Amino acid sequence: MEASAPKAPQTFEELMLPHMDAAYNLARWLLRDPHDAEDALQDACLRAYRSIERFRGGDGRAWLLTIVRNVCYSRMRRGRREPAADAFDEDAHGSAHDPGEANAVEWRETKGELLRQALEQLPLEYREVIVLHEIEGLPYRDIAEAAEIPIGTVMSRLARGRRRLQTEILNLAGRVPRP
Amino acid sequence: MNCNESRAAIEADADGELDTIRHLELEAHLRACPDCARLAEGARARRAALRAALPRFTAPPRVVERIRASLMAEEAPRSAPRPWVAWPSWSVVGLAASLALAALGGYAWGRSRGRGDVLLREAVSDHVRSLQAGHLMDVVSTDQHTVKPWFIGKLEFSPPVADLADAGFPLAGGRLDNLDGRNAAALVFHRRLHVINVFIWPAGGTQVGARRGRESGYNALTWSQGDLNFMAVSDIPAQELGQFVAAFRGRTQ
């Protein structure tokens, strides 16, 4: 009876270990390297552990993902791994070669490998919301919390990210000439 | 819903972020508008394609082990959780309340200690789940005259509701929960950035009485009023939770 009673998280480990996969997945997609992602995960867990008193008892996953994200960003800044991400000009790029909305058939025919490549090449700010939403299944609200941005920004980044992903797929597939 | 509204709603709907009413409005529009229906189908196909194609990387077990080891090296293990203790003796604020509570039902706990521990764990677990699952509130309101009627017809009892904003514990809303195998009302209060859940359920002859408990870093206080049992759970300090309970009882008795 006692053993089968529902058990509340008791320690840092019990609170955070269930979110290790989510944390690793985000680090892996942000850093695009398994070893960097492992180091970032360990770094993030230590930071989370040391600042557990600042955890205000909400969703442990969003809290841990925020820390993972910050760790990844500072690693990238140090290594200058993501140079052109912020230089991407959405309007200029989007208007000149706007492929229009892809239809259902086009999406169904897109190869998985192509999608993965396209996502890897997406600028960081779009990649992270797509990873958190499409792969991790986080609702807008949790993404806003993890990425420390307003919900409206989550929605606009998702919309632009998808548009950009579609352009990237067409480019990779050679269906549209590069500018 | 017109096409403009529909275009805005299609993405949110594919993302599972539309409420039922707007979802039904969108469905009605899509049945009537082939252009929007095509867009919606595209959005759903895109989502399915992404879900199917994008791998979710999982943390390698050896990395998790490494992390576990480095955390253990970081600090000595924390103290073992204390069991329930009779409450409260820690503050002048709580003194009057404690005397009243002790008179009310403090003795009842003695013969049901084992059950009380299970109850405590269940309530703390409900509290944590309510924070984690994003299901903190079914009815969001700071107005007790909105929250109280919301429970009518959903429960076989009428939980007392009071806003304690002037005491520093604003009412945030309520939801249906389950405790001790019964439907329970859960009232949600805020204390700065913290959340207090108050579970209310019919005693059915088994008053929980006045107990103070601690589990997994959360504090809990129970009491009984009439044929209702109450348990307040939060991560705020025990003393503040005592102030909250005193304010709540003062307003609802």
Lay out the secondary structure.
The complex is a heterodimer of chains A (179) and B (253).
Chain A (H helix, E strand, L loop, with lengths): L11 H5 L3 H12 L2 H17 L9 H20 L10 H7 L7 H6 L2 H10 L2 H12 L4 H8 L3 H23 L6
Chain B lengths: L2 H12 L5 H13 L1 H20 L7 H14 L17 H14 L7 H20 L6 E2 L3 H7 L20 E9 L2 E10 L2 E9 L8 E5 L2 E8 L2 E7 L3 H15 L1
Antiparallel strand pairs in B: 1-2, 2-3, 3-4, 4-7, 5-6, 6-7
Using a beta-carbon cutoff below 8 angstroms, give the protein chain pair with the largest interface and the number of residues from each chain.
A-B, 64 and 56 residues
Secondary-structure element string of chain B:
HHHHHHEHEEEEEEH
Task: State the share of residues found in helices of chain A, binned by percent.
Answer: 55-70%
Secondary-structure arrangement, i.e. CATH architecture of the largest domain in chain B = 2-Layer Sandwich
Put simply, the count of helices of chain B is 8
What kind of sheet is the major sheet of chain B? 7 strands, antiparallel
Distance between the amino and carboxyl termini of chain B = 48 Å
Shape category of chain A: elongated
Strand order, largest beta sheet of chain B: 1-2-3-4-7-6-5
CATH fold-level name of the largest domain in chain B:
Phosphorylase Kinase, domain 1
CATH homology group of the largest domain in chain B: MucB/RseB, C-terminal domain
Q: How many separate helices of chain A?
A: 10
- Please tell me what the overall shape of chain B is: extended
- Enumerate the spans of chain B where pLDDT stays under 50 for 5 or more consecutive residues: 75-113
CATH topology title of the largest domain in chain A? Arc Repressor Mutant, subunit A
CATH superfamily of the largest domain in chain A: Winged helix-like DNA-binding domain superfamily/Winged helix DNA-binding domain
User: What Rg of chain B do the Cα atoms give?
Assistant: 24 Å
What is the CA-based Rg of chain A, rounded?
19 Å
